[in-house]
Structures are given as structure tokens and as C-alpha cells.
Amino acid sequence: MSLNNLDIAKVTYFKLNNELNIPVDGHIPLDRDHAALAAFFKENVIPNTKLAATLKEHLTNLIDQGYLESDFLQQYSWDFIQDLYDYLKSQHFQFKSFMAAYKFYNQYALKSNNGDYYLENYELRVLFNALYFAGGNTQLAQQLATEMIHQRYQPATPSFLNAGKKRRGEFVSCFLLQITDDMNSIGRAINSALQLSRIGGGVGLTLSNLREAGSPIKGIKGASSGVLPVMKLLEDSFSYSNQLGQRQGAGAVYLNIFHPDIMDFLSAKKENADEKIRVKTLSLGVIVPDKFYELVRNNADMYLFSPYDVERVYGVPFSYVDITKEYDKMVANDQITKYKIPAREVELEISKLQQESGYPYILNIDTANRANPIAGKIIMSNLCSEIQQVQIPSTLNDRQDYVQMGTDVSCNLGSTNIPNLMTSPDFGRSVRAMTRALTFVSDHSNIEAVPSIQKGNHLNHAIGLGAMGLHTYLAINQIEYGSPTALEFTSVYFMLLNYWTLVESNNIAQERQQTFANFSQSRYADGSYFSQYIEHDFRPRNPQVQKLFQNIFVPGPQDWLRLKNKVQKDGLYNAYRLAVAPTGSISYINDTSASLQPITWLVEERQEKKNGKLYYPAPHLSNETIPYYKSAYDTDMRKVIDTYAAAQQHVDQGMSLTLFVRSSIPEGLYEWKTSDEEGKQTTRDLTILRNYAYYKGIKSLYYVRTFTDDSTEVGVNECESCTI
């Protein structure tokens, strides 16, 4: 019986998995999940997998029938491919939960055109990834296969899903586009959004440069419609265009908090907004300079500035003006139209919307630019708020041709699995292989439909390696999430990722005699980037953390000094190397907790479309780990912020930091809660947490997820366009 004719009523694995949620004698019956996993293979996978008798015959059939590309295989001998597949099989990989296997076979495994059969297993998907991203380098292919079969490295969904397939989207996870204040740029951006959503991941766009509603056009007062109609056009574009039907098109729009349309921008996401302006599927992000926090702290009025006037006065688009530095001059300048509003009114509106919808994302733009080691200005972020790279504006003519082509951003992502990478026989070698794999994607990404994206990629070779499974690793080692011990571990781990990606980027630059563009103007070239590592020893001091790293080389100041000298001599190939993206379904497959955040539940409940509810136990759940697996909704979010801050000091881009709060906050969790509030979540709670994150040096905040009294979640991100 094929997959399409599978009788759901007769299979047992859904029922067995559901029994996981029914305690037995007060205990979680984990054996039910193991039984569901075995039943899934027996009743679903084994009878519906079609593999030829030999590997060569199977791959030949896949190529002949149009399922598989042939070029990437032709870079290797058949003997090598066979040996590598034999090696993968010899590792005896096994999924550790029903959800892991279910997610892999439903979302990632290659299926026949009619959907009746699986045409690959996990080992084949890993094989295709390793061969593809090694680019003919047999040593690297072997290393990547090792990293992936042991789940130390996980390519992002677009890469892992598409590697080797004949009919596929791109490998790139996300794109960033800016729109300047003219109709040609708006038109080109809408077309670009269509193209990018069709071929790849999520698309982020900044609207900050567009003149506000009611501003003049060619001297006609009140002619501009502002940013809202552009948002509606973009939302329609994303809903129309998706990646061969495999993924829902998704986009995010960013607006500077000093833009005059900021209140209308936020209102567009409200449930009760007029349908003419309401955006249902578009994600919203707010770009927040330091000056806003100062004005809020002082309970002062804030001025919102006309982007059209600002560009006329300063000669650059609104996004490129340092508002914190120029604020007082802009207020005093009579040539700039401005609008006054209490700063705390905007702050309140943000908190109210985050309670209702989980939006907007927050990008602390001055924090991002202070830490940015690359010459230029960061002006926005992406669909998941972790990509932060410099951009240069483009100039277009009436044919929408480039008069002067700027640079926009594409980024391909991957993630380390912390519990597994910590057991690697060679931590540095593992990370160096991952850096090579991600660099391959950057080198071979060619987004012709959007030349500014293509140019930015060719100049910067940017990648984004991150991590998942922090809470799982801490629980396994009986360390409380957010404790001083946990924070020190997080810092050392990300220092190592930073060190080894720098080492390998330097090796690539030396081999190819090529650096990223403008390397000579970077803080890497002048050596100042390395000061924090030379002047401060980041090696662990806590005995428990020292023990965790006892078999792993941890560089000290002298090692960093040697690396600094090498980088100054030979340069770096990748302008950006690290970013912590959210991890969606892929963290289930990897049997680990998502990203750096705490787990949400000991047994997570997911609604899986037509198949109803599925249950997923926390990874490595046992009597020993349960005390260390506190739900994110019962965790002080300052511990989460502290955790991300510990990592952020080593990460050259950003991190997708989600805040988890209950609508009824547990007593004693936050000392500022008063008895008259009766534990109810208020806008003040979110305001305090956002400001705490800012003062801790957090570059961006992703969703706010609220667990309500009726057991629903507000602000749950189901989009996987940009997740790993």
C-alpha cells in the first residue's frame, strides 16, 4: 500500500504517540514514544520506501527519472560514493523519537512524483548533502558526512532539503532588501520579493526610506500614501509566490521608530484593523536607535522625521542617517518636517501589539552597528531578526535599470548541535568543515533575478553558523539554565565557534588569495576586533565548566594574538560568519532543544494538519534531567536574555531571541509585579524586558510568545522560511 493510500485508521503510531500525553502512575510513559517510532517504521517507512538493489542502480534511476542532479555526483568516483554510503550505513543512525522520524520523512525525504513512495532514507539525504557541499573535495565530503550522520552539524532547511535534487529551490535561507524613496525602487522591490520568495527562503525589506503618508509628491501636498499600501502589495506578493509549493512565501517589513508612519505601521497588525490596511501574514519589525530608549527613560516627547526631507538635507536615504547622533540637529532644522508624539505612547503601543500578536520584532540598530566589524552601516534585519549586515543603496532609472548598483544581502545558515558537537573528537576540525560547507553555498549562490543581492553575496561571501540544543546540553549535565555556570559555558562555546570560523575563513583567504570586499577597512584588518580576546582571557574559570571542556582546545590570549597576526597578514574570506537562527522542525530531527532557548514543555504538543495532535518529549528526558527542564513560560526571561548576551559578545551578526511569557505570570517570577495586578501580564512587563535586553547589549528581539489562560499560544511562529 502506497503513502497516498495509507489507511490512517489502521496505523498504530499516532495512537501510541498520543498515549505519551497520558501519565501512568504520575510518570511520562516514554516507552509509548519508542513504540510509536518502531510502529512508524514498520507500518509506514519500510513498506513505502523504494530503493534499488544497489546504490549505483538507485542513483542512476533517480538521475534518469529527473529526481537527482548528476553534476555533483560526477565530481567523485563511484567507488568513493559507495564507500561513503557504506560508512554512513555502518554508523547505525537511529531516530530517537517518533517526531524526529515523522518530521524527516514528511518534510525532507525525497518522494516519488505522485507522492506514493519514499526514494531515500536519512543516510542518502546526508550523503547528497555531503557530496554536494564538498564540491568534489573527497576529504571534506567524508568530514561533512561524519558531522551530519552524528548530528553535530545541521544545514538549514533550504540546504538540507534541496541538496542534490533536480527540481528544487535555492539553498539560501534568507534575503534582505532595502527600498529607497521612489516608485522605481518600490516596483523593483515587489518584483524581487516575488522572485526571491519563489526560489528561496524568507525576505526582509526596510520601508524606512519611504516618505510618510500625506507628504508631498512633486510639490502636490498630501499626495503620498505612505508605507501601508506598499506593505499590502508585498503581502500579496508573498502569498502568491512560494518555493515550488513546498514552503509558504513569507516576508518581514522593517520601519524605523522615528518614521512618521510608525503608529499606522503597528496598527496594521491589530486584529481589529480595517481590512484595507490590515496585514495578516507579513511580519513586522521596528528599527530602534539608542535615542528612543533615552527619550522613553526621560518620559519625553519624540519627534518623527519626514524621510523625504531628511534625505534632501543629508544627501543620503533616511536609513543611513545616525538619528541618535543627529537627533537634536534634526529637531532644530526647519527644513525637516517633523511630528511630535510622547515616546512612551509609542512604547506602550509596541507592548500592546506584542501582547496581541507577538509582533513587532525589535532591532536595536545602534547596538548592532557598534559591534559591526565591517565598514559600512547596518540598516535592517531579516525575517527572523538574526541577519545583520551592511548594505549600500541602489539608484534606478525609469526603466528600473541600475544607474548605480548597491548591495543587498543573502545568507545561508547552518547550526551546530551543542550536545553532539561537545563530544566531537576534534571540535575545531568539525567547525572548520561546517565553515567550508556554508562557504560553498555562498560561492555557488547566483541570484540573477536580483542583481543587488547577487553583488552583495559575491563581495561578502557571508555565512551564518549558529547553535541549537543549549537547554538539552545543560539538562544532561545537570546545570540550571541561566545560572552563572550556564552563562560561562555559553560564552566559551560561542568563543570557540568564533575562533574556529575565523581560523577557517583565514585559511580560505590564504588559499585563494582573496578576501571579502573592503577587508582592509574592517576592524579585522586594523586588529582592533581582537582586542577583547587579547586583553581578556575567556577560558573557563568555573571548575564544572573547565571539566566540560577538558578534552577540547580552548584558545587563550596568546592564541588569539597569533590568529590576529595571521588575519592581518592574509585576511578573511567571509565578511560575516555567525548568526543564531531559530530552529524549527530540524531540532526535532536532531533530538535536541530549539536554538538557545528553554524548552516550552516537558511533552510538547503540536497540531499536525490532517493528522491531529502529535507529542514530543523533551530530548534526553529522564529522572536525572527533569529537574533541569523548566518550561520557558516559567523561566525569568532575564535569564534567557543573559544567556543570549553571553553568546552575543562572540557573534558578529545577531540572534533570534524569543521571549516567553504567561498571560498570568507565576507569583514571585518578577519582583516588580504588584499585588493589585493579580499576576496578570501587563504592557509594563514587556517594556521592562525589552529595555533589559537593550541594556544587556542584545541586538535584536524576535517574537513575544504568550501562553494564555485558555492554554493557547499567541505569537507562535509556524513559518519555516528562514528557520534552520
Low-confidence regions: 718-722
Q: Which percent range fits the helix content?
A: 40-55%
What distance separates the N and C termini? Answer: 33 Å
Structural class: alpha/beta
Q: What does the radius of gyration come to?
A: 25 Å
How many β strands by DSSP? 18
What portion of residues belong to β-strands?
5-15%
EC number: 1.17.4.1
Catalytic activity: a 2'-deoxyribonucleoside 5'-diphosphate + [thioredoxin]-disulfide + H2O = a ribonucleoside 5'-diphosphate + [thioredoxin]-dithiol
GO molecular function: ATP binding; ribonucleoside-diphosphate reductase activity, thioredoxin disulfide as acceptor
Domain Ribonucleotide reductase large subunit: 560-582
Task: Provide a descriptive summary of the structure in words.
This is Ribonucleoside-diphosphate reductase. One of its GO terms (biological process) is deoxyribonucleotide biosynthetic process. Provides the precursors necessary for DNA synthesis. Catalyzes the biosynthesis of deoxyribonucleotides from the corresponding ribonucleotides. The protein is of the alpha/beta class. The protein has a domain of 201 residues: Anaerobic Ribonucleotide-triphosphate Reductase Large Chain, CATH 3.20.70.20. The strands form 5 sheets. Strands 1, 2, 3, 4, 5, 8, 11, 12 and 16 form a 9-stranded mixed β-sheet that branches. The protein has a 3-stranded mixed β-sheet with strand order 15-17-18. It has a two-stranded antiparallel ribbon with strand order 6-7. A hairpin with a 5-residue loop joins β17 and β18. The longest helix is centred in the C-terminal third of the chain and has 29 residues.
